[in-house]
Write a structure and sequence with these properties.
alpha/beta, six-stranded mixed β-sheet, 11 helices
Length: 361
């Protein structure tokens, strides 16, 4: 029996590598067996791989599913009547999208873990919140995209939820000015996807020669860098523009995907993504999928304790990255820290920002 409360009582960056390995290995084995017995599709794949799940598999030997499988098959480990929500990944026209099936238990633990991770940078108090998007994206609560799921997930940290783009993605300058004036003496939380912040907030401020004082704001963004990289926009330049036009210094990128909703990897003050205790990252060599060493690039595998209603607990992504170290980042957070190098060559565009960017080119 998977002990959800045991998972939730651990703070995000509180275990050293030995403690975390024991913690993750034990629970991920329980979760693997859960999916093996509850999902006939997962059982058939594991049997086809001739892997024996005996409850004592090493973390690096836990079988992984290619993330693209979620585009090709409906994978779930609960009765269909228990599914309360279906999330879909980002995808340009003509692309298949992943479908992720959530029951109440999985949706609940995802929300609670996301809260613990984000609270580690924002604090526990809900803050007035600016959302760099249109409220049209979240109209269908039963089935919506990764972009809508991201907005809805992060909105639990906010009050006075204020969307500053209209349905045509135009910046609502008056609405932004009103929000800034109303909350000028308060801490503020801003959320949006990377390219959309660049295209519809920063560039519009630049074009209209507008500047705002959001020095007390913290901004969390994510969802892909492909379009910005194609325009030669670096992370440093992105942050410099936020500082110049909005006077924002507290900027946190995050890495994550709809296939493991709730398991996010927050960027620290030293520009490193960090793996919390509820998840892990393994980098694999593309030639044989063997485990790569630290500071060696390869394909990213993500392990998460959160997916219980579908077998997404160990997936091989289509992203390339490097693990830089473990337990010794200068920010003080325990756990592995890493950087993303980008999408694998010939992999489909799938990030929320990148997909949106493709749709307007």
């Amino acid at each position: 029996m998977i002990n959800i409360e045991e998972i939730l009582k651990v703070e995000p960056f509180s275990l050293n590598k030995y403690e975390k390995r024991d913690f993750l290995t034990r629970i991920i084995n329980e979760i693997s067996l859960h999916h093996y017995h509850k999902s006939i599709s997962y059982k058939n794949m594991i049997d086809g791989l001739n892997v024996k799940l005996d409850g004592n598999v090493l973390l690096e030997n836990i079988p992984f599913l290619p993330v693209r499988l979620f585009k090709l098959h409906d994978l779930y480990s609960v009765d269909k009547t228990e599914i309360i929500k279906t999330l879909t990944s980002s995808g340009t026209t003509g692309q298949a999208v992943s479908k992720i099936f959530l029951d109440r238990q999985t949706a609940s633990i995802q929300t609670k873990v996301l809260t613990k991770i984000v609270s580690s940078i924002l604090g526990s108090k809900r803050l007035p919140m600016l959302i760099v998007d249109s409220d049209a994206i979240i109209k269908n609560r039963a089935m919506f995209s990764a972009r809508g799921a991201g907005i809805l997930g992060f909105s639990i940290f906010g009050t006075q939820l204020t969307y500053i783009l209209d349905s045509e993605m135009n910046l609502l300058v008056d609405k932004l000015q009103e929000f800034v004036e109303k909350n000028k003496d308060q801490q503020i939380f801003i959320f949006g996807f990377t390219f959309m912040i660049w295209q519809h907030l920063i560039n519009e401020c630049k074009r209209l020669n507008l500047k705002f004082d959001l020095s007390k704001a913290s901004i969390v963004h994510g969802g892909g860098w492909k379009k910005l990289i194609s325009e030669n926009i670096t992370t440093i330049e992105f942050k410099n523009h936020l500082k110049e036009y909005l006077n924002i210094s507290n900027v946190y990128d995050y890495y994550g995907m709809v296939e493991q909703t709730g398991s996010i990897y927050i960027e620290c003050e030293h520009n490193h993504f960090h793996s919390p205790v509820y998840s892990d990252i393994i980098v694999r060599r593309p030639v044989d999928f063997s485990k790569a060493d630290f500071n060696e690039s390869g394909i990213i595998q993500l392990i998460s304790l959160l997916p219980l209603s579908y077998p997404g607990h160990s997936i091989l992504t289509e992203d390339e990255g490097i693990i830089l170290g473990e337990d010794d980042c200068k920010c003080g957070r325990l756990g592995k820290y890493f950087k993303i190098l980008g999408r694998l060559k010939n992999a489909e565009i799938r990030g929320c920002s990148d997909t949106y960017a493709e749709s307007i080119i």
